[in-house]
Amino acid sequence: MDSRIIEILVSSFPQILIPGLTMTIPLTAISFFFALVIAVITATIQYAKVRILKDIVRFYIWITRGTPVLVQLYVIFYGLPSVGITLEPFLAAVIVFSFNEGAYASETIRASLEAIPNGQREAGLSLGLSFFQVMRYIIYPEAMRIAFPSLFNALIGMVKDTSLAANITVLEMFMATQRIVARTYEPLLLYLEVAFVYLIFCTVLTKLQSYGEKRLNRYGYSKA
After folding, report:
1. Which residues contact 97 (CB under 8 A, 6 or more apart)?
2. What is the DSSP letter of 221?
3. pLDDT tens digit sequence for 13-46
4. Model confidence over 57-72: pLDDT tens digits?
5. How many CB atoms lie within 10 A of CB 216?
6. Distance between CA 54 and CA 44 in Å, rounded?
7. What are the φ and ψ backbone dihedral angles of 67, each rounded to 5 degrees?
8. Nearest alpha-carbon partner for 196 in 17, 15, 11
């Protein structure tokens, strides 16, 4: 490997890492937070079997899981301006990733809720607790422990999926890499370099997931 290639890789690493820390990670964290909020609400509606709302939720999940996230990004960012709605790239990405992941996480949480024996809910209700108190203090603490591994896997997947935001001009680390490639004409090594940075981020999250699962297992909770 000649000195020019080494110089490009060394100089490009911070140019890739910094957008990763300042854009990719915040985009992932914010989107996943709102995805969890959406998932908890929609999963609760399905678990409670609220008729009209359940149908609306199932329609939302059907549409979201049945269409590519890249198409959703294009519809929100490039399509909505035709009807007078213009969004900043970062906000558009957060909306799309939140609703997209919210649909998948909703099914994960719903399955975890249904894995809790009905006797626990009935016991809580017999003690005079309201439905929401039972959900908050009895059902959800156990369900979220069951869902933890799957939800964390989804978080790791979202870190990689944020690279799609480059298609709507979000300057995250994949787009930063594309710009460097356009200047240096070294696509192979630079794309391998950004892949390595993604690998670093995902490895850190994998370690955190393993730590979290061990902590949960100490309290006698099995993994999903």
Report:
1. 27, 28, 31, 32, 35, 69, 158, 161, 162, 165
2. P
3. 999 999 999 999 999 999 999 999 999 999 999 9
4. 999 999 999 999 999 9
5. 17
6. 9
7. -125, 145
8. 17
- At position 131, the amino acid (one-letter code) is F
CA 204 vs CA 79, 101, 159, 190: distances in Å: 36, 21, 12, 21
Q: What is the rounded CA–CA span in Å between residue 159 and residue 29?
A: 9
**How many helices (DSSP H) and strands (DSSP E) are in the chain?**
10, 0
Tokens representing residue 99 in the block: 């609703």
Q: What is the pTM of this model?
A: 0.91
Place of tokens 């993604």: 198
DSSP character string of 187-217: HHHHHHHHHHHHHHHHHHHHHHHHHHHHHHH
Cβ(89)–Cβ(168) below 8 Å: yes
The tokens of 174 are what? 């994949």
| Residue 168, C-beta contacts closer than 8 angstroms, at least 6 positions apart | 73, 74, 77, 78, 89, 92, 93
Give the C-alpha separation, 214 to 38, whole Å. 27
CA distances from 189 to 61, 147, 165, 192 (A): 39, 38, 22, 5
Pull the structure tokens for residue 26: 């915040």
Between the alpha carbon of residue 199 and those of residues 124, 160, 193, 220, the distances in Å are: 44, 9, 10, 31
